[in-house]
Amino acid sequence: MWDFIVDQLLPILIIVIFSIALFIRVLKQKQRMCRTIHWRKHRKMTIQLLSISFVYLIILLPYAIVYIIRLSGLKNAFSNEFYAYTVFFSYFILLLFPFVCALSLPESLIKLKNFFQLKQQQQTKPTNQPIFTKIKSHDKIFQDRPFSIICHLPFKDPRSTPCDDTFCLECISKWIQTQNRSCPVCRRSLSIDELTQVNRPIRNMLDRIRVKCTTCGQSELSRGNFKEHVEKTCPKMQILCSSADIKCPWEGQRDQLDEHLSNCAFHSLRYIITPLMTENEQLNELISNFRSDNQQLREQTGHLTIQANKYQREIQDLNQQIAQLRTQLQNQQIKEQERHKTSIFNEMIHSNKNMQMVPNGISLLKGVWEYIDGENFDSFMKEIGVGMATRLLTKGLKLRLIIDEITNEWTVRFESTIKVIEYKFVPGVEFHETTFDGREVKSIVIFSANKWIHQMLDKNGEKSVIIRYVDQNDMQLVEMECGIVKARRWYKRAT
Hints:
It is found in: Membrane. The chain crosses the membrane at residues 6-27, 47-70, 82-105. Residues 1-101 form the G-protein coupled receptors family 1 profile domain. InterPro entries: Calycin, Fatty_acid-bd, GPCR_Rhodpsn_7TM, ILBP, Lipocln_cytosolic_FA-bd_dom, Znf_C3HC4_RING-type, Znf_RING, Znf_RING/FYVE/PHD. The structure is a single chain. By secondary structure, the protein is α+β, with helices and mostly antiparallel strands. Among the domains are: 2-116, no CATH class; 137-207, Herpes Virus-1 (2-Layer Sandwich); 358-493, Calycin beta-barrel core domain (Lipocalin, Beta Barrel). The chain contains 15 helices and 17 strands. The chain has a ten-stranded antiparallel sheet. Helix 2 (43-71) packs antiparallel against helix 3 (80-90) and helix 2 (43-71) runs antiparallel to helix 4. The radius of gyration is 61 Å and the shape is elongated. The protein starts with a helix and ends with a strand.
């Protein structure tokens, strides 16, 4: 059993677990240093780890599982023939393991070759002094390590830290902006504001690095001029036609451009199309300006409409307030008038309750009277609620009025060609009356200062007052009042 654990089970666990752990460690390291994972660079490592894990999992793991089950007492779970096959296939580990190890042999040879070359260079003394012997101490470090430890590429826009380390600006900025606010080398606290640009000699040295264009294959290009080479001179670079701005669809290598231009229909028509395009751009600019002005006018119109609506609402509110105030004022005036009339009426009742003798001025009202003229009588009748038909009917009538008194009981009789109305009353005593226009009212008549005061209250609560007296011309004057409407009528004695 111990032989199985040492020879079979432990190698499976150790090799598989450590292979997976190593792979995860590489991924975590790339993520921590803010670097993208280039699978092409890690292809060999991935193949090595997966191949050795595959060998142990596929070939040796079935045998280990069957053996553990048989040790548990479940010998009948698998047949002896299946167990013999698992044992047989487990021996293939010895045959396949050298081939798996051979996958890392080329990389080992390269490392050994570099190691021996380095030893040989150390033994050989240089004939010339280094090119950067007069650069500062941290520049010597830069000379020994001309690549960024973050991206492992030559420095691009290098920046120095207070601890004399150098990094690409983009790399160190991403490093600081993540959770790592420290130097990748010395772990000292670091911020973007502390970064400084490296001196001119170092930037010149970086620009003099020799590179090769992978597109056209030209080598010995200085890194400082590589961008110009790509944009202007690389013969294999994919470019557009010079007439692409007038919709030429051609795209090809730079060394094929001259041949294309000799046959390009767009290029031959360029001197015709260019003025049209210029004019079209100007027209488009004018249209854009008009649209912008139109949009501004629409916005201004919208603001003015909002303000106008606001002012309209305010005007409506003010009109409502004015109407309410006017109604309140009219109601207050009516209440004051009614209060005043009621007060006068009560005073008259109180002063005439015990009056036994009729004033001389009231006695002059006795007799027969004929209607001669009126003033604002139609408005008065309208105010007390008389309909238009009745008003028109009574407008031209010649009334005959008869007033008589027997033992303090007065009789009033109206005679016309269409109707005769009569009512009786005792001064100071309320009585029910049917008026000439057909209204049912409560009435009371009071004599005061030679005036006949007749107050009426209809079923709608509308009050009216009629005052009769004889003027100096022996004419009976009738003054009528309802609300704010006043009217007068004149009668003369019948002959």
